[in-house]
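The authors assume throughout that readers already know how a fold can be written as discrete tokens. What matters is that the chain and its backbone geometry are given together, residue for residue. A single example would do more here than another paragraph of explanation. For illustration, here is how one protein appears when written out as sequence plus structure tokens.
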Amino acid sequence: MHQFDSVWDAIEDTPKNAEMMKVRSGLMMALQKYIARQGLSQAEAAKHFGVTPPRIAELINGQVNAFDVDALIAMAATAGLHCDIQIREAA
């Protein structure tokens, strides 16, 4: 039985797609935590990030394919979150 480093490695069809999903999901989880810590409603979060409430609903519901990395990094910067990308050789 093959073991995977992450769920994305198991379900995505290419290593490139798996890496993109890992980055997006990590950013989304950080933003979800930020919204929860701040006690923001979806409407308040939408106003804070300059997006629509349905976009925040997509974020909260983990709809990873709804976002590109650029949009998530912009939202993280708005939240005052610093993004570090770690690059290493594949195993």
Summary: Residues 15-38 form the longest helix (24 residues). The radius of gyration is 14 Å.
